[in-house]
Amino acid sequence: MVRQMKINGKRLLDNLYALREFTDTPGKGVTRFSYGEQDVNARRYILDIAERLGCSISIDALQNIRLGFKGNVPGRKTIAAGSHIDTVRNGGWLDGIYGVCGALEVMETLTENLADYDYNYEVVIFAEEEGSGFGSTMTGSKFISGIYDESDLDKLKNDEGKTLREVLAPLQTRCCCDVRENPYRQVQPKEAGVSTQCGESSVDISRVMWDFDTVKTMLELHIEQGPVLDEAGLSIGIVDNIFGMRVIEVKLDGVGNHAGATPMSQRHDALCTAAECILKAEEIVRADEDKRTVVTTGKIEAAPNCSNVIPETVTFTLEVRDRDEAKINKAMDEITGSIRDIADRRRVSCTIEEHSKSSPLPLNRRLIDSMAARAEGQGLPYKVMDSGAVHDACMIAAHVDTGMIFVPSIEGRSHVPQENTAEEHLLTGAQFLMDTVLSELASGK
Ligand code: GLV
Ligand code: MN
Ligand code: MN
Question: Rounded to two decimals, what is the model's pTM?
């Protein structure tokens, strides 16, 4: 029989309110990039809780964290729950961290009600999910699932031109100090207790990829980030498909010149070219019949960026998302063809680089059905729905049974400071995660 346990709602909300203070932009949303100072603060806060709960702590070379329930038995498969703690610039207070705090609240509740289960339980915190630092979403989980390998440590670069390897190298310490002093300390389960010198600098990713035979289920609790649940007055979303995405980076090289003395007929303005390309991409995607495909340019840089100089170079990102990979590819082909034509016509040179991609993914049918039955049984208003946002769960879903639970985002706002969810829904979602974890823990070997 599956046990019932009630989470402590106040404790969950207290953690969320405390963690929202770890931001580089107080008063202007939460800005907490992976490997930065606020990431350290958030990690320290969470690792303190894990230590108090007697969890095993394992941190890999990418700085993904796994926290093991103190009642776990070696050799049993794991039910994992979690999400990420990094944010976009000036983002919201719930994206990612809600799923981590929800999973941690499950850990607290299990620890208060120690019992023997068929499976182990772990909280997972994925690093660099947003791609705020290195421009590629789900970086930590891409390494965990083997999509990224050694060579990507050198390919992925941040805005300062530093490679991921260079950023990770100083964090590769297995020194004897505790996690409060060094929240990036790596402790692999096999070598816990072994102390080596501080300041190791080689980035060894050989043990980052999970042994998926040891994991039975992955669950991610998340805010919806779109308007569907809020508009329909529902309290739970059960995700059946996660959109795929492709991101390109376009570099346009025009001719810089004087903004007053250069006639309009003699200009090769990189920013006007970019503007035409971006609007053309919007036009192409708006023509989509089922109105599901989306296109976004969220990052653009113009140089020299002076009001009285015709922009000489412009670099911008462009991403296309849909639940159908063929449609993503078709839209992207049409967009890149148009960008090249527009640049040619304006005699501006153009390079297009594929930046990152992930395929659309259906989540596990067994979990969708069992969560839908649970919501039905509890009388919770729910919907089985797509996720337009990508999540670390997609990277794990290719290997193990993976499920996602959504709660409503007020007015569908996310990735902005206004991101919010009613407390009542935050509590309902976390309790629903608790119930789902308990059912998985007792689901027989
Ligand atoms: C992550 O939040 C994404 O969907 O970009
Ligand atoms: Mn997220
Ligand atoms: Mn996000």
Answer: 0.94
